[in-house]
Amino acid sequence: MTLVPADAEEQALIALAKSGDQGAYERLLEPATRSAARLAFAMLHDRSEAEDAFQESALRAWRRLRNLRDGSRFQPWFIGIVANQCREIRRGRWWDVVRLHDANVEQPVNESGWFEGEDLRRALLRLPYDQRVTILLHFHLDMPLSDVAITTGISLAGVKTRINRALKQLRPAMAVSEVRVNG
């Protein structure tokens, strides 16, 4: 995987944050906030769960900031923490209980429009986690493939393979969505 080095300003902020400067950490976190929140909502489909996942990820990143390798960029590293936090939430036993309880609650229209086409949205949810997260990072967050590789911790070739496999599985759902729109 090709690493895109962080610029000097970002490295300076990372160094300050690693030394305990909360303001520097907040400046690092700010540009990642929108992408992280979008990913969390796309993965969890619940605004409050997405907010909780983001907040927990921000705390974890602050505690683990020393794990960020020198010269690495903050945003892909942080988005990876958000993706892992969403996976943990989805795996948790309480998630199933909460989701069953909320099954009859209608979501506001603006939240359901995060991805066009109900058939496509359902097909995306059926993808394995590793494929779903690469699709969401690349297509939903417009993240370059190299950043997806950094975020997921796999090679660029691995990212491309996961995206290709996911797209093959999504094609039938996309065809159904296109027929309904055009038909």
Quote the distance from N terminus to C terminus: 43 Å
Instruction: Estimate the helix proportion, in percent.
Output: over 70%
Biggest pleated-sheet summary: none
Give the helix tally.
10
Alpha carbon gyration radius: 18 Å
CATH topology: Butyryl-CoA Dehydrogenase, subunit A, domain 3
The domain count comes to 1
Provide the low-confidence segments as ranges. 93-114, 177-183
Structural class: mainly alpha
Please report the first level of CATH classification, the CATH class. Mainly Alpha
The CATH superfamily appears as PhyR, sigma-like (SL) domain
CATH architectural category = Up-down Bundle
Shape: globular
Q: Strand portion, in percent?
A: under 5%
Total beta strands: 0
Query: What string, H for helix and E for strand, traces the elements in order?
Result: HHHHHHHHHH
What's the rounded overall pLDDT mean? Answer: 80
Keywords:
Butyryl-CoA Dehydrogenase, subunit A, domain 3, single chain, 0% strand, mainly alpha, disordered C terminus, 183 residues
Outline the fold blueprint.
Layout lengths: L7 H11 L3 H23 L2 H17 L10 H18 L1 H9 L7 H4 L5 H9 L2 H12 L4 H8 L3 H27 L1
Describe the protein in words:
This protein has 183 residues and is mainly alpha-helical. It has a single domain (8-182), classed as PhyR, sigma-like (SL) domain (Butyryl-CoA Dehydrogenase, subunit A, domain 3, Up-down Bundle). Helix content is 75%, strand content 0%. It is built from ten helices and no strands. α2 runs antiparallel to α3 and α7 (118-126) runs antiparallel to α10 (156-182). The longest helix has 27 residues, at 156-182.
